[in-house]
Amino acid sequence: MNFSKECAQLVEEIIRQIRDLPDVPHWARYDIAKKQYELPITLYVGEAKSIEISPEIEKNLTKLSKSLMGNYFSSYKVKFTNSEWNKITKRAFGLVFNHREDQVYLEKDAKGALEFIVEQLCKWIREIQEREYAFGCHFCNLPDFEPLSIGPVRFEPRIAWLKRMFDNGNVSKVSVARITKSWEGKRLRKRKLSEDGLRERQILGAIGKSEFVCSVTVVQTGAEAGLQKAATAARLAMTVIALAWDKPSSTLNYMALIFDGEPHAQQSVIFVPEGLGGFSASRSYIPGGVTWLKEEEWDSLRMNLEKIFTCGGDVIEYFLGNSDETQRPKIFDVLLQSILWFHEGCREKTDLMAIVKFWSAMEALSGGKKKRGVLSLIESRLTIKDKQRLVKEIDEIYRDGRSRTVHGTNDKLGYDWSDLRNRAERLAQLCLISCLDWASKNPDAKDPKLLSSAGT
Fold first, then answer.
1. What angle do CA 357, 362, 365 make, to 5 degrees?
2. What are 352-362's pLDDT values in tens digits?
3. 296 and 172 share a domain?
């Protein structure tokens, strides 16, 4: 093991600070330290025991956590959130006192304590199992929908998902019967408190009234980071699917994760000087998913966009870090950021901000080369019938929509930008579809500059 001097010094300093803590209860330290602490800070030391520590020690533990990540676990930086890594580092440090009770010895043997901490963290990381996160989802109106996988993201009717969970041993027969009964609109009898009952309530809460389940497989990742990544992966997959329709933003308004909030109506009341002027209400999105979809239409869309779905799935797999080996990370980085920007543009409520995000989706694909780069991208990937009109439109989106807004020089913020937003969305959609299709057909391509190269 290659020892980090920085980590060893921090371990030694923290042990010394713990040794020097006054041997009095937390409440008595108020007068000693002349500081006000809202709650005692504890450090678990194993065997259901803990000790109270000071804010200074807590800060040093956070420094140690960061140092350990940088010196020993840098490859896992994308696998944990900062907060959860701090928690497990703190827990591993506390167990040192269960491992070695002599604090003076520990101070002299900081390297030994550090070695124990690193070994404990390695052990916990190895024990992390593959997780499948499930989200209730409004997807479409087809009851016999065949499960669709976009890489590690799977969409399926909730009944099919529940059966799969039962077959995998994740849900009991009793819970399956009760959950199905609840989904049929029937009232359930109160169940005795149990682990199985808790899982049942969690399923009913997560799926809600949605007819579909979106599940995401995440490998060897911390629980907090895994949830964040799974939710993002689900949104990315929905965005890739929404590319199949003329206006993805409208489709995404119908496709929704319950995790992001139940469908709701936006209401407002209007007053005029003479009194009550009226009432207006608008729904932000309607539950039920793509309710106009026909089976033959979906079969056609799915067949035509198979390569795009496959490439989008590969990009999401790369984002989740489920595989240690990636043949073309640079291409996937570009496509990933473009899909993220496009999703944010589709979900954006303010037209000008949406234009900025749709432009960013195109600029990511072009390598960040601004207006000239986006124009080169479009010329390389799309068929242009009227170049003069295209140049004018690109100029308008970039200058009036993106640049003046970003740089604070837009004096037309109150104007209606919906038309330009629609054009920016359509251009970004076509660019994204074309680039995903090209990346799928050219699996050996690794340089993202090729996306804007004519003749490739």
1. 130
2. 999 999 999 99
3. yes
